[in-house]
Design brief:
Helices cover 37% and strands 14% of the residues. The longest helix has 22 residues.
C-alpha cells in the first residue's frame, strides 16, 4: 500500500526541487532501524529546555518518517532524518502530519474489509429459518422417489434407500411418512 501526495514547497536535491512524494506503512525492519537511530541520538541534558525537548520530538518523528517516505527523484538513502530536518519546510512538515493520518485511515479501511457474502445453501434443508422436509440426521442421495408410490418424487431419499419422514406442514409436532398421516393427525385434533 502506498499513499501518494504532492509537497507544497518540495525538497531540494542536486539543484532541483522535487514535489512528488509517497508514504508507505512502517515495516518491522523500518521500525527497528528507527529505534536504533533514536537510541544513537545524544542524550538530552538532565533538565532539558522546552526547545531541546521539541527538537528531540521532531528528530524522532523525522527518523520514523525517513523509513516511510519516498520522494520522486531523490535516492532513498539520501532521505534521512538529518536531510529532512535541513530541507523540509514547516508547511510541508504539517502536510506530512496530515498525510500520515490519511495513510493510517487508508490502512484501517483496508483492514476493515466487508464481511464476505453469505454462501447460499445448496440444499433446501440447509436454509435457515425454514421448515425442513428432511430430518436433521442422515445422508440423502437425492430427491427421486422411484418405487415409493405416486407423488413421492419430491420426497428426499436416504442414501440407504428409506424414504425420509416429512416435517408436518400444519404445525404438528410429529413428522409424517405420508400426507395421509398428516390428514389423519389433523382429524384427531
Amino acid at each position: 500500500m502506498k499513499h501518494s501526495f504532492t509537497l507544497q514547497y518540495g525538497l531540494e536535491y542536486n539543484g532541483e526541487t522535487h514535489f512528488q512524494a509517497a508514504l508507505k506503512p512502517l515495516t518491522i525492519g523500518g521500525e527497528l532501524n528507527a529505534m536504533d537511530a533514536i537510541d544513537a541520538l545524544p542524550a538530552l541534558p538532565e533538565n532539558p529546555s522546552e526547545a531541546q525537548q521539541s527538537r528531540r520530538a521532531v528528530q524522532e518523528t523525522l527518523i520514523y518518517w525517513a523509513q516511510q517516505l519516498s520522494i520522486d527523484g531523490i535516492p532513498q538513502d539520501i532521505i534521512t532524518a538529518d536531510y529532512l530536518l535541513n530541507h523540509l519546510s514547516g508547511a510541508d512538515y504539517s502536510l506530512l502530519v496530515d498525510e500520515m493520518e490519511a495513510l493510517r485511515s487508508k490502512s484501517t479501511a483496508a483492514t476493515e474489509a466487508p464481511a464476505p457474502p453469505q454462501r447460499q445453501p445448496e440444499h433446501p434443508a440447509q436454509q435457515p429459518n425454514r421448515p425442513s422436509a428432511i430430518p436433521p440426521s442422515g445422508d440423502y442421495a437425492g430427491t427421486r422417489g422411484a418405487g415409493r408410490g405416486r407423488g413421492a418424487r419430491h420426497v428426499p431419499r436416504r442414501a440407504n434407500g428409506m424414504a425420509a419422514r416429512l416435517a408436518c406442514q400444519h404445525g404438528h409436532s410429529q413428522p409424517h411418512r405420508r400426507r395421509s398421516d398428516c390428514v389423519a393427525a389433523a382429524a384427531e385434533t
